[in-house]
Design goal:
The protein has seven helices and eight strands. By secondary structure, the protein is α+β, with helices and mostly antiparallel strands.
Length: 249
């Protein structure tokens, strides 16, 4: 027997279905990621209007059906993050953030920390320009919420303190390696400079980081490799993000 539920959710993706309908991927705080069938979403502007745009925060009413697909009965915009949509750099960052959240979690598994981190990051983009270190913080928050936080203070292999000097970061092993384990670094590893290591540690602790373009570029590459090793692929939105990278303030 079907039953209606009300959820607070971020629209992650929409896919057209036939001439009238859409399938919407939502990330809800209460139920995690789910797919919903929005009947008439394409053929009627009154049915959902602009509610189902990606990275919109909505209050959704859904009907649970048999199988994995829900029915989307109604949706109202809680926050549209309208300023994001007028700036190419912010669009690129928001697109990457929602795709990362979508790929990190499985269906119907609540991840309240990740939901909160995603909404907070979208609100940050809505309130000001896209900044590289803000996106690095979200990447770290997202990986932590998914149980994939990279080891930065202790060796990913043996658990001993990693120290404060330059050290290899091996995404396949899950983080930095201490001097004793440095020889085990794989071909995908890269040496992490002291400034980059300290900046990422500060972000992981929730502390502010001063802009530093060289360190920022290295941190971006390191976390990008970490994301790709966990997902087993490169996100489609990453290419767009790379193209607009010079536009980030």
């Amino acid at each position: 027997m079907s039953r209606a539920v009300k959820l607070r959710a971020v629209v992650l993706r929409t896919v057209d279905y036939g001439e009238r309908d859409r399938v919407v991927t939502l990330f809800s705080r209460e139920r995690g990621k789910l797919s919903a069938f929005a009947r008439g979403a394409r053929s009627s502007r009154r049915r959902f209007g602009g509610t189902l745009e990606p990275f919109t925060l909505v209050a959704a009413e859904l009907t649970e059906r048999s199988g994995d697909l829900w029915g989307l009965d109604d949706a109202a915009v809680e926050r549209g993050f309208g300023s994001v949509r007028g700036d190419l750099a912010r669009i690129a960052c928001a697109s990457y953030a929602v795709e990362l959240a979508r790929e990190l979690v499985r269906d119907a598994e609540p991840h309240e920390d990740l939901f909160d981190a995603l909404v907070a990051y979208l609100a940050l983009l809505d309130g000001g320009p896209a900044r590289p270190w803000d996106l690095r913080r979200f990447e770290l928050d997202a990986l932590r919420a998914a149980g994939l936080q990279p080891a930065l203070d202790r060796c990913a292999r043996c658990g001993r303190p990693a120290g404060d000097g330059p050290c290899p970061f091996d995404p396949a092993q899950g983080g930095v390696l201490c001097p004793a384990c440095a020889s085990t670094a794989g071909p995908g590893s890269r040496t992490m400079a002291v400034g980059v290591l300290e900046a990422l540690r500060r972000l992981q602790r929730g502390e502010p980081v001063q802009p530093d373009p060289p360190a920022g570029g290295e941190a971006r590459a390191i976390l990008g490799a970490c994301v790709e090793i966990h997902l087993g692929k490169r996100l489609q939105s990453r290419r767009f993000l790379d193209e607009v990278g010079p536009m980030l303030s």
